[in-house]
Amino acid sequence: MTEQGDRDTGLNVIDLNADLGEGFGRWTLTDDEALLDVVTSANVACGFHAGDPSIMRRVCALAAERGVRIGAQVSYRDLAGFGRRTIDMAPDELADEVTYQIGALDVFARAAGSRVSYVKPHGALYNRVVTDEDQAAAVIEGIRRADPSLPVLGLPGSALHRAAVAAGSPTVQEAFADRAYTAAGTLVSRREPGAVRHDEDEVVARSVRMAVEHVVVAATGEPVPVAARSLCVHGDTPSAALLARRIRAALTEAGVSVEPFA
Amino acid sequence: MTEQGDRDTGLNVIDLNADLGEGFGRWTLTDDEALLDVVTSANVACGFHAGDPSIMRRVCALAAERGVRIGAQVSYRDLAGFGRRTIDMAPDELADEVTYQIGALDVFARAAGSRVSYVKPHGALYNRVVTDEDQAAAVIEGIRRADPSLPVLGLPGSALHRAAVAAGSPTVQEAFADRAYTAAGTLVSRREPGAVRHDEDEVVARSVRMAVEHVVVAATGEPVPVAARSLCVHGDTPSAALLARRIRAALTEAGVSVEPFA
Amino acid sequence: MTEQGDRDTGLNVIDLNADLGEGFGRWTLTDDEALLDVVTSANVACGFHAGDPSIMRRVCALAAERGVRIGAQVSYRDLAGFGRRTIDMAPDELADEVTYQIGALDVFARAAGSRVSYVKPHGALYNRVVTDEDQAAAVIEGIRRADPSLPVLGLPGSALHRAAVAAGSPTVQEAFADRAYTAAGTLVSRREPGAVRHDEDEVVARSVRMAVEHVVVAATGEPVPVAARSLCVHGDTPSAALLARRIRAALTEAGVSVEPFA
Amino acid sequence: MTEQGDRDTGLNVIDLNADLGEGFGRWTLTDDEALLDVVTSANVACGFHAGDPSIMRRVCALAAERGVRIGAQVSYRDLAGFGRRTIDMAPDELADEVTYQIGALDVFARAAGSRVSYVKPHGALYNRVVTDEDQAAAVIEGIRRADPSLPVLGLPGSALHRAAVAAGSPTVQEAFADRAYTAAGTLVSRREPGAVRHDEDEVVARSVRMAVEHVVVAATGEPVPVAARSLCVHGDTPSAALLARRIRAALTEAGVSVEPFA
Predict the structure, then answer these.
(1) What is the mean pLDDT of chain C?
(2) Beta strands C257-258; C230-232: pairing state
(3) Contacts of residue A88 in chain D, CB cutoff 8 Å?
(4) Would the N or C end of chain C have less CB density within 10 A of its end CB?
(5) Segment A94-109 mean pLDDT
(6) Cα dihedral: B90, B91, B97, B102 (round 10)
(7) Which CATH class is domain D12-258?
């Protein structure tokens, strides 16, 4: 099993992924239509931290029309906390919840003529499985029960990716153009000042450099290698779609091919 | 499209279905293991009125081991009311919720080597779609979006079955051995005295007569034809499994073959 | 028990009420701070259709600081449907849910130095208790269990107000400046075209006429008497606070005193 | 502020508390009526891990009739996990959720002629605030916002009790007759073998010794002082009420006065 981000084909290829469908009932959050015109992979909320069946159907239909790949953005069951709070779940229950969410989304993806093509954990679960081996293994078990061939989108070097490799699931590495990196190539904690980069020009420039040179400048100044097959752009701010559009244009201009990985 | 309950093969064949997996988290309700040794079709709760991912996984595994068919027992989203309260939903939202539940269950059924083989609405939704054409059509739309070939288990003459026939979905008729019938062949409302038959000997005898003679004695005394391919036995009382076992034994003794319909 | 809206003091007095605190977790909806600078009564969501404990605390604190009265905006338990879907609940369970919501809000109101001063049903429950005597009586029972002196804000002539009067609870009548009225003085159903008035100048003019002349022009053209102690202004649109501000200014200019009723 | 369990009056006095009202909708768990005939303090679930408004009303009414004190058994919001999974909540949100639950229960307690007389965290929250200073302080803040005079029932030496003392809230110490203790007087983790004592004779004997001699024999054999004003008896097993009855009878026979602390 090779990490898809590791390959070097001479031609620079990158995927753009964003969290979508994160409304619930009367509430909206992400500008799904605008973002689906830009990204190549849609991390669709499955009802546990956001998303309801009608939103899921609509986002899957819009994504399928545009050829945007549909990923299951699986989460802790926590509407009240938007999946942003770690829950000390028993691993087997976590695995079951992951499976449930993938199945619930896949039926809409298939009805739209597509399918769930990958899985990416959301929020607190994403962060937890960077280091928690038990929950990481549970997520992978839950994914593999649905489909052992489903790629797992996540952070390079994460426990999640180690568990995927151990189990035989494909992994896809992602990078964050608007997050500060340490010299070790990990993300600076959101609790640190400067962890999130708000300057849009900087974010665009970093995106291009990540895709072309496979490098990011760490918070401490040194260049750090970043091997990512996908860039995560954020979808939950009013200007998210505009920034994503700028990033995509700059990538194209730099000769990078923006393509889905799945 | 013919109603499967209509056929007359000379050999009497009947399915036994029961509602299963109706716990939630810490709470249990149905004696799943005992009932799965008796019934041929399991109406598995999908998380909207009862059932959680771990229960769904376990019940699917137990059902698949025994060759018991797995049906999606779809419901209004109402854990607090156990799906027993009619909700005036928009039809398109209801359709989406039905699709979601089928997808969520199917992934566990397939992981267990089986699949969702039919759909049966639960509780208030079951009752509502006996007469409500809009919600009936929505349920059928939601089912067909998941799989147009999925049989719909329900009440003969119901709006649900009419909508299924109109859309081209197979229907399967069921009867209730412990419910009083009117002379018109419909169920006596639960609000009427005597609507539910509690005498176990009577319930067993009615079951056999339904399967062998395709007849039930109405509350008003006259025999009424009942063309059912499946008998619903109740699973939510402590003695439910015992009664189901007695019914199955009596059917077998009467020469009825107890077989799934799907 | 007299209806407070019936009194004619010579001085025109009106209350402005709006639905507030209708976010949930990560999601926001109502511009609470802007509206609390305009209205005199805040119908605060209590967690059943919207609102979470943190939102409730913040809205209560902001309301109390401004002297805005806090009302419990009680709802069916339906986050997924934002309380906009009728649920056929057993009356005693509905009464219990109303009591629960009032208690949950009152503790925050008191912590802010105020208290729950009135109750107004939300959404589908509001509409249902215009005519449904059983649910109306249940809502009143639930309110009186919390506090028999709590005024009930609602539609003149509603089953809710009849039940309140019968039980001895104070009633307060409200009118809707942006809703079309029938010649009989009831609201035109939202399903009818023109049921909601979107022209802001018209809404402002109707507000003033309701407060000064106690009259509204029906959809069919004739003037209809409207005896309202409170005007409901809507809070769930981006321009809601601006419109509310215009209404308040116009009322003041017309010599109407904008004062809470409770 | 003195810990009520510290006092030595010569007369041995003890309270018996149990978790009650832990059903939800269709599901039941605790044998509320039987336990309310035995205990002197009822830890009533408030809807976040279990309990719904109708159950809360009924349990409050039954408790008030018997003079059993009503305590708010506050929990993380986690019906699916029965409040048994730690959630990494922001302290201010936790405080708000605690306040909400107390308010929701208090309105039923007052309607029954009683009031919420104390607070006891449930499940994972109970365990977390034994050591987590931030969440402990948040729970106390949430309690004090509802009523600064409310006693906090908990484990001696817990962060929760330290936070209560620091804030000026009364504390009440409890002991567990069916749990193994370490030589340091803390509970043996449930993950250790023998952590829960299942021999009923032993549990009864330990209860009496705790109440009379203020001592328990640790898992390692030595006697350990236990200064408890309340004994927790478990309510979620079929035989719970019987065991509680035996404990109460044995206490009475040993000259211990079984009395509420609040």
Answers:
(1) 94
(2) unpaired
(3) 85-87, 124
(4) N
(5) 98
(6) 170
(7) alpha beta
d(CA B64, CA A95): 20
CATH class of C18-258: alpha beta
Under an 8 A CB cutoff, do D24 and B81 touch?
Answer: no
pLDDT at D175 over 90: yes
Distance (Å, rounded) from C-alpha D206 to C-alpha D212?
10
Query: A26 and C52: CB-CB below 8 Å?
Result: no
Smallest Cβ distance to C99: which of D93, D100, D107? D107
Euclidean distance between CA atoms D181 and D192, whole angstroms: 11
- Confidence band (pLDDT; 50, 70, 90) for A99? very high
Question: C116 by DSSP, 3-state: which?
Answer: strand
List chain D residues with CB under 8 Å of A89. Answer: 81, 85
**B-contacting residues of C 221-240, CB under 8 Å?**
none
C24 and chain A in contact, CB less than 8 A: yes
How many Cα atoms within 13 Å fall on the side-chain side of residue C92?
5
Q: Does D24 touch chain C (CB under 8 A)?
A: no
Q: According to DSSP H, which parts of chain B are helical?
A: 32-36, 53-66, 91-111, 123-131, 133-146, 159-167, 200-212, 240-253
Test C106 with D103 for CB contact under 8 angstroms: yes
Write down the ipTM of this complex. 0.95
Would you place residue B6 in the very low, low, confident or very high pLDDT band (cuts 50, 70, 90)?
Answer: very low
Q: How many CB atoms lie within 10 A of CB D238?
A: 7
Going by the DSSP 8-state scheme, the letter that residue C68 receives in this structure is P
- Of C125-134, D8-17, D156-165, the poorest mean pLDDT is in D8-17
pLDDT of res. B7: 46
pLDDT single digits (tens) C20-43: 999 999 999 989 999 999 999 999
- Name the residue of chain C whose CA is nearest to B77's CA: C80
- Site from C77, C87, C94, C97 to mutate, B interface, most B CB atoms within 10 angstroms: C87
How large a percentage of chain D has pLDDT more than 70?
96
What average pLDDT score do residues D163-169 get? 98
Give the residues across from B224 on adjacent strands.
B216
| Alpha-carbon gap: A220 to the closest alpha carbon of chain D (Å) | 30
pLDDT in tens, B189-206: 888 899 999 999 999 999
Residues 6 or more apart whose CB falls under 8 angstroms from that of C115 comprise: C70, C106, C109
Interface check for C91 against chain A (CB to CB < 8 A): the answer is: no
**Domain edges within chain A:** 12-258
Q: Which one, of D215, D213, D152, D140, lies nearest residue D181 by Cα? A: D215
Dist. CA C63–CA C66, nearest whole Å: 5
Q: Name C172's bridge partners.
A: C153
Of B4, B14, B41, the closest CA to residue B235 belongs to B41
Token digits of residue C158: 């509603």
CA distance B184 to C77: 37
Least reliable range by pLDDT among A72-81, B4-13, B24-33 = B4-13
Q: Residues with Cβ < 8 Å from C34, sequence gap 6 or more?
A: C241
> What's the CA gap between C14 and C174, in Å, rounded?
10
What is B8-258's CATH number, 3.40.50.720, 1.10.3720.10, 3.90.420.10, 3.20.20.370? 3.20.20.370
Residue partners of C65: CB distance under 8 A and separation at least 6: C112
Buried b (16+ CB within 10 A) or exposed e, C128-153: bbbebeebbbbbbbbbbbbbeebbbb
Q: Residue A88: CB partners within 8 Å, gap ≥ 6?
A: D85, D86, D87, D124
| Chain A nearest CA to B125, separation (Å) | 17
The alpha carbon of residue A257 is apart from the nearest alpha carbon of chain B, in Å, by: 34
pLDDT class for A4, splitting at 50, 70, 90?
very low
Which pLDDT value is given to residue A9? 52
